[in-house]
Amino acid sequence: MVIEQEWAILLARIQFAFTVSFHFLFPAFSIGLASYLAVLEGLWLKTGKGVYANLYRYWLKIFAVVFAMGVVSGIVMSYQFGTNWSVFSDKAGPIIGPLMAYEVLTAFFLEAGFLGVMLFGINKVGRKLHFVATLAVAIGTFISAFWILSVNSWMQTPVGYEIAANGQFLPGDSWWTIVFNPSFPYRLVHTLLAAYLTTAFIVGAVGAWHLLKDRANEGARKMFSMAMWMAAIVAPLQIVAGDFHGLNTLEHQPAKVMAMEGHYQSHPDGAPLILFGIPNSAKERVDYAVQIPKASSLILKHDLNAPLAGLDTIAEEDRPPVGIVFWAFRIMVGIGFAMLGIGVWSLFARWRGRLYDWPLLHRFALLMGPSGLVAVLAGWVVTEVGRQPFTVYGLLRTADSASPLDAPAVAASLVAFVVVYFAVFGTGIWYLLRLMKKPPQAHEPALEDAPIRSAGITPAPAVLEGEPA
């Protein structure tokens, strides 16, 4: 019976990981893409250059598909709180529920109110009103990320709660303490920068693809240039933000950092930075380790000889799975430095006047297209697996959070999710790639074919073609 319960919990965790991984890909792209669209439309209104209007319409079609898949996958994922994790929902619901409701009341309502105007009103309303709609959707994606990350951060660093007699977590004197919990500001900045980089490298890859085919394509040149500026500016900021986030994690979730670093043993005189190796939890060591002596103490404590505690100070039943966290962290960091490298390379190419005619740079940018998506998934694995064996860190164990379901029932639903997700979202991703394969046109068509005046001031025909009025 105990073994069957363990299997049921494991399958429920795999199911949630599978669905949230699919879901996370789309907001990670749509958050940055919504802001990119706002920048494009703002530049068009300011400069009157048709290239910005054409790029706006080109990426608006892609945004519509990405946004739709993000909403659908998010709704499906949320049902699992009631089906597979009902005990967690019961105990943490008084805190998690209102925060999720705030997301609906703010972000969803804002996006729902302006999304239709943004997608289908470009030829039907005035230019300023349409720009307001684009800004509203972009702000809505930020607000959505704000509340979701606040929820997740509270689960990582729970504060401001009281525990009732029935075991429920109840809010204390101030909701602001819960919302702005200790890890939330760092996680918000780190995640938003990751979303912007994800979008930048997808946009850059699309631009590079079309530059390899036609270096004279104005739209491809502009999108590649903007993407490389974002990579050059934001990648170093992300590395700094990640360092601050890591220091915050060391303070509040030391076991997670120990797993990230592969520190099974404590180091009283300075801990090494293990670059690569094979974690061996059975023997509590990292086999074949390639390491830099005392560098971990320098990074985490800014002192070569600073002592660092290891997993030997943590009870075995409270340790996260080291192997998964160890390698996911290295994937995330490795991609981050690769992004920085592309950004620096692009600055050199720009200085040399070869940004648009350096095929090797374009091929590497194309190769890095999905890197942001891989990095955010690796970061999510570090965050969530590193929190184990707890759902609410240090307070509520994952084993005590699951619904009383039989393993075959969870397995059946997991198989159904895998089949449906790969069929539906696989088709959606194929369609996105098909849209990206087409080069931006000189007069990019809007989502609707025949403009129908509904409100506001209908732009002149020249504006509809992406030219200044």
Automatic annotation (TrEMBL):
Location within or outside the cell: Cell inner membrane; Cell membrane
Principal location: membrane
Domain of life: Bacteria
Keyword terms, alphabetized: Cell membrane, Electron transport, Heme, Iron, Membrane, Metal-binding, Transmembrane, Transmembrane helix, Transport
Keyword Magnesium: no
UniProt-listed Pfam families: Cyt_bd_oxida_I
Membrane topology: Multi-pass membrane protein
InterPro entries in UniProt: Cyt-d_ubiquinol_oxidase_su_1
TM segment ranges: 24-46, 58-79, 99-122, 129-149, 193-212, 224-241, 324-348, 360-382, 410-433
Family: Belongs to the cytochrome ubiquinol oxidase subunit 1 family.
Protein name, entry field: Cytochrome ubiquinol oxidase subunit I
